[in-house]
C-alpha cells in the first residue's frame, strides 16, 4: 500500500484541476484503511471540502481531528483560504482556539531529538526529515535504500519545532539547523569508516547550512527532493564548503516536483562548474516524494 505522504502528493496533483475529485480520491483511500492516516490527511480533507463548497464536511473533519483525536495544528495552517467559509463559525473558532493552545504547549516542551545511542555498525547514515514529518518518517523513508546490510547504522535527527501533532518542521534561520550540525559533529569522533547524511525536502537545507556554517562534515550528502532556499544567497559558498570538506554529493529530484527541481538543477550546475564529485538524478514521473521503487545506496556511493 502507498504511504500516506505519497497518497497526499497524488491528492495535491488532483486538486490542481478538481477539488471534488481530489476529495473523493483521498476519502476513498482513507475509508479503505483509516488506521494508516493521521492529522495531515484530516487537514487535507477539511481544506478540500471547504474549497469544494462543503463547509459542513470541512468542519466535521476538523472536529474529528481536534475533538475526537485530540490532535492539533500549527496556528497559521488553520487560516488557509480553503477554510475561509468556516472562519466566522463559533464552533470553528473554538476548535482553532483549542488547537492553538495545544500547539503553544507543545512548543514550550519540545526539544530536538537524535536517535543515536551508541555505535553498532561500521558505517553511519544520518537521516533528516522534511517539514510535516518526524524522525520516524525519516527512518521509514531511508531504510529501504540501505537494504539489509549489517554494515550500515541508520539514525535520525528530529527538529525541535512542532509543525502539527506528531510532526515537526525546520526554520530557515540561524538556529534551527543547529540540531543537525551538532549531531553530525558528534558522530565525527565515533570511529565510523564512513558517514553519509541524507535529507528530504527542508532537511536538505538544514544539512547544507550545517556544512556551510559549522565544522560539521561527512563523507557524502544525499539530497532527496531538495527544498534549499539557502542557495538563493549562498550558492557559491555552499559549493566551496562542500569542496573544502571533500564531500561527495548526490542530488535526486522528481521530474514533476515543480518547486524543488529548479533548486536541484541550480545546485547541480554550480557543483559541476566547480568540479565537485556530484551527480544529479531526475526521477521520472515523481512529485515531491521518494520514488515508488527505492534506489539503492550502493548505487550512489
Biggest sheet statistics: 7 strands, mixed
Count the DSSP helices.
Answer: 11
* SS-derived structural category: alpha/beta
Proportion of beta-strand residues: 15-25%
Describe the structure.
The strands form two sheets. The protein has a seven-stranded mixed β-sheet, sandwiched between helices. A two-stranded antiparallel sheet has the order 4-5. A hairpin with a 2-residue loop joins β4 (161-164) and β5. The chain is globular and about 55 Å long. By secondary structure, the chain is α/β, with parallel strands linked by helices. The mean pLDDT is 96. The chain contains eleven helices and nine strands.
Write the layout of secondary structure elements.
Elements: H1 4-15, H2 19-32, H3 39-51, H4 55-68, H5 90-109, E1 113-114, E2 123-128, H6 135-146, E3 152-158, E4 161-164, E5 167-169, H7 178-187, E6 194-200, H8 202-213, E7 220-224, H9 231-244, E8 248-254, H10 261-273, E9 278-283, H11 297-300
Parallel strand pairs: 2-3, 2-6, 6-7, 7-8, 8-9
Antiparallel strand pairs: 1-3, 4-5
Keywords:
16% strand; 46% helix; alpha/beta; 301 residues
Q: How would you briefly describe this protein structure?
A:
This protein has 301 residues and is α/β, with parallel strands linked by helices. It has helices at residues 4-15, 19-32, 39-51, 55-68, 90-109, 135-146, 178-187, 202-213, 231-244, 261-273, 297-300, and strands at residues 113-114, 123-128, 152-158, 161-164, 167-169, 194-200, 220-224, 248-254, 278-283.
Amino acid at each position: 500500500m502507498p504511504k500516506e505522504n505519497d497518497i497526499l502528493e497524488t491528492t495535491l496533483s488532483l486538486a490542481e484541476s478538481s477539488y471534488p475529485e481530489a476529495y473523493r480520491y483521498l476519502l476513498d483511500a482513507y475509508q479503505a484503511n483509516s488506521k494508516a492516516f493521521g492529522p495531515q490527511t484530516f487537514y487535507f480533507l477539511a481544506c478540500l471540502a471547504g474549497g469544494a463548497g462543503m463547509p459542513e464536511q470541512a468542519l466535521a473533519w476538523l472536529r474529528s481531528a481536534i475533538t475526537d483525536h485530540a490532535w492539533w495544528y500549527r496556528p497559521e495552517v488553520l487560516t488557509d483560504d480553503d477554510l475561509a467559509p468556516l472562519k466566522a463559525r463559533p464552533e470553528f473558532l473554538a476548535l482553532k482556539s483549542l488547537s492553538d493552545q495545544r500547539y503553544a504547549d507543545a512548543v514550550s516542551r519540545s526539544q530536538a531529538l537524535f536517535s543515536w545511542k551508541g555505535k553498532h555498525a561500521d558505517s553511519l547514515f544520518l537521516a533528516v526529515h522534511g517539514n510535516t514529518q518526524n524522525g520516524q518518517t525519516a527512518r521509514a523513508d531511508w531504510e529501504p535504500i540501505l537494504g539489509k546490510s549489517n554494515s550500515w547504522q541508520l539514525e535520525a535527527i528530529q527538529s525541535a519545532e512542532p509543525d502539527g501533532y506528531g510532526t515537526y518542521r525546520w526554520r530557515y534561520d540561524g538556529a534551527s539547523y543547529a540540531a543537525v550540525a551538532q549531531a553530525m559533529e558528534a558522530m565525527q569522533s565515533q570511529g565510523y569508516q564512513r558517514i553519509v547524511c541524507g535529507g528530504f525536502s527542508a532537511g536538505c537545507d538544514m544539512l547544507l547550512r550545517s556544512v556551510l556554517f559549522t565544522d560539521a562534515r561527512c563523507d557524502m550528502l544525499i539530497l532527496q527532493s531538495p527544498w534549499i532556499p539557502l542557495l538563493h544567497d549562498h550558492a557559491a559558498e555552499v559549493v566551496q564548503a562542500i569542496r573544502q570538506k571533500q564531500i561527495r554529493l548526490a542530488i535526486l529530484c522528481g521530474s514533476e516536483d515543480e518547486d524543488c527541481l529548479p533548486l536541484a538543477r541550480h545546485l547541480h550546475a554550480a557543483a559541476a562548474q566547480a568540479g565537485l564529485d556530484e551527480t544529479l538524478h531526475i526521477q521520472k514521473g515523481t512529485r515531491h516524494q521518494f520514488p515508488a521503487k527505492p534506489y539503492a545506496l550502493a548505487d550512489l556511493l
